[in-house]
Amino acid sequence: MPEAPLLEIRNLCKRFPARQGREPPPWVIRDLTFSVNDGEFLTIIGPSGAGKSTLLNMIAQIDVASGGEIIFQGTRIAADDPKAMRPGLDRRIGYVTQDDLLLPWRTTIDNVLFALEVQGRLDDKSRAHAAMLIEAVGLKGYERYYPHELSGGMRKRAALIRTLVYDPPVILMDEPFAAVDAQTRMQLQEDLLRLWSLGRKTIVFVTHDIAEAIVLGDRTLVLTRQPTRIAAEHVIPFPRPRDVKHFFATPGFADIYERIRAEVQ
Amino acid sequence: MTTIDPSSALVAEAAPFVSRKTLVMGGRIALALGLLLAWQWGAMTFGTIFFAYPVDVFWRIIAIARSGELAEDILTTLRVSSIGFVIGCVAGVALPFLLRRSPRWTAAVEPYILASQGIPKYALAPWLILWFGIGDLPKLVIVTLMVFYIPFVNTFAGIRGVDQRFVNMARIMGANEVRISREVIWNSLLPFFFTSLKVSLPRAVSACIVGEFLVSTAGVGHYIEHAREISDTVGVFAGIIVATALVLIVNAFVERLERHALRWRPTDRDMVL
Question: Which of A99, A126, A107 has its CA nearest to residue B169?
């Protein structure tokens, strides 16, 4: 009997509340069902406006569902009751958003330590861990810089390790590398894969870049346009560690790329 | 992982021919000279009943500084205006923070606070004297009331303008409500807070001086009012100059504080006020 999935999404629905005196708006997400295994790197790809951010917001418990269930480690989360929502589910779900959302009044190091600070877990060991992560993504020497003094790629790295540092079992990522140039994006993907190979967390990574979904993922879900459902599922068979920079030359890549491209409308 | 030279993160600026600072300084000095000339011209045209000569005013200030009168008046004015300022500011900032917790209370209280803003505060003076006598207290109340609305309105606007995404991010990372107030809300508010400081500090000093016109035995306002009573135009001008200098000094202090507290902010040098 296979292990129970870490995170299960069952018949999840979302529609935004109707304005007074108007027709209720259409469903953004309708009967969406999938699961994520422990230690899996799941990538989700879909056309823009497919409700990808809304989906992650619901899993992260900062947005209410209009129906359906979210089950985390076998426990049902009250996804549709705003009063019962616990953002981040007691630090078990981390979230790297599309905008880096670094606190502009904190320096790089203070942004990275923020979560540990509010969780009361700041000690020599966690500081050393933070310093290791800062070095691993090439931010050493920038600890005392404010976010506006950093380049876009550096801000993404800081935002990434700010979540990695407190070690949540699941990390949601919402197109975190969408706003940087192709060269920087590859570098960031490489960094992410290396960091992931160290900790093997469960990652749900949303993107609209097909190549990114294939390079990073163990499995890729393809979403439809609104109302969002699952159009297809692909197991990405390529072995790890993967060479991000030369991945296009991997035998079989073009084939799977074409298949997914045909499914993304 | 490539390493990047830290200095490359900063954009190099081309040096203009005449430095910007020199230009601004030159402009300021030219304006000051122009104003002095206009003042001198006014005194020569309208006579010493309506205008005092700049030179006379200068010597008067030296004279009252030597006699100790100046220091006493300044201290009196500063004492009342700073106490009133602090009370008004603390209340003006704290109240929106308390109201943030309850949208219903906010909706109930806000129109009353905004309506009470319409009361002309100086018109309260006779009533305040009735209650508190002619000591510092009535002036203190006026200063507090004059100051309160500025941080109150600004803090309210600031709290409403806080980027909710930062709040959500902090919650996801495990921050509780107190922590969110202190970290996200307060820091997002700081620019608003300093704007209100800059507006309300001069207002506190002016309110105190006007209060001293009405009821006082010492203070810069008392000096001006007393000079007016004995038709001492030089004295009136000297008092106005001292009051202006006082406000400028206090403002310079706030600006230093602001630069330090907001050093994280990318500054647009053309918008520095």
Answer: A99
Task: Print the domain residue range for B208.
Answer: 73-262
Q: Which residues of A touch B168 (CB under 8 A)?
A: 62, 87
Answer whether residue B6 is part of any domain: no
Closest to A176 (Cα-Cα) out of A104, A111, A97: A97
Whether residue B9 is contained in a domain is answered as: no
Burial class (CB in 10 A: 0-12, 13-18, 19+), B84: buried
CB contact under 8 A, A105 and B187: yes
Q: Which of A61, A97, A149 sits opposite B9 (nearest CB)?
A: A149
User: Would you state the pLDDT for residue B17?
Assistant: 62
Is the pLDDT assigned to residue B8 strictly greater than 50? no
Say if B68 falls within a structural domain.
Answer: no
Non-local (6+) Cβ contacts of A70 within 8 A are A7, A8, A9, A10, A12, A58, A59, A76, A77, A79
Q: Is B185 contained in some domain?
A: yes
* Structural domains of chain B, count: 1
- Asked whether the beta carbons of B99 and B160 are under 8 A apart, the reply is no
Nearest CA in chain A to B262: A105
CA distance A260 to chain B (A): 30
CATH number at residue B246: 1.10.3720.10
ipTM of the complex: 0.92
- The pTM (predicted TM-score) of the whole model is 0.83
